[in-house]
């Protein structure tokens, strides 16, 4: 898969390394690397920007996302909606949208094993994009769990639960969930 990872911070850098190690062709776009070059030829675009940067990114590059799968890993902290589904639909109406990699801290993408168990990663996408998103989740080493289409608010609830346990209760950021 040809993947453009937009953002090179902890999340974007860690995901990009995992995707490349799994054999995917990865390019990065960020303030220091040209975003148009990263988007050119990409089939999938993983958004790993700061939440405050999403609107500007979509304003400038929305038309270039036409026909691509946009995987939203961004959390727009402090806003009514943590996800960017409505914004992607408005600014990149020809793009397909999925929500994944937003419900854990980046440390769990770097080390997806917990006491010998692989954690689950919940995601939401159209049925037609399940295989592509599951390839990305597999590349990170987590087990994909499909919530169905348009389950972005439910997925954002998983993030809130993760924060309550990892941060609120002080259990630490290397924490994941497993469906049994």
Structure described in brief:
The chain is α/β, with parallel strands linked by helices. The chain has helices spanning about 10-20, 35-40, 55-60, 85-90, 105-110, 130-140, 150-170; strands spanning about 1-5, 25-30, 45, 70, 95-100, 115, 115-120, 120-125, 145.
Give an account of the 3D structure.
It is a single chain. The strands form 2 sheets. Strands 2-1-3-4-5-8-9 form a 7-stranded mixed beta sheet, sandwiched between helices. Strands 6-7 form a two-stranded antiparallel sheet. The protein is globular and about 40 Å long. By secondary structure, it is of the alpha/beta class. It has helices spanning 10-21, 35-39, 54-61, 85-91, 107-110, 130-140, 152-168, and strands spanning 2-6, 25-29, 44-47, 69-72, 96-99, 113-114, 117-118, 120-125, 143-146. The longest helix has 17 residues, at 152-168. Helices cover 36% and strands 20% of the residues.
- The overall pLDDT average reads 97
Helix residue percentage: 25-40%
Strand content: 15-25%
Major sheet size, sense and barrel closure: 7 strands, mixed
Total of DSSP H or I helical runs spanning 4+ residues: 7
The largest beta-sheet arranges its strands as 2-1-3-4-5-8-9
Topology:
Elements (H helix, E strand, L loop, with lengths): L1 E5 L3 H12 L3 E5 L5 H5 L4 E4 L6 H8 L7 E4 L12 H7 L4 E4 L7 H4 L2 E2 L2 E2 L1 E6 L4 H11 L2 E4 L5 H17 L12
Parallel strand pairs: 1-2, 1-3, 3-4, 4-5, 8-9
Antiparallel strand pairs: 5-8, 6-7
Essential attributes:
180 residues; alpha/beta; seven-stranded mixed sheet; two-stranded antiparallel ribbon; 7 helices; globular
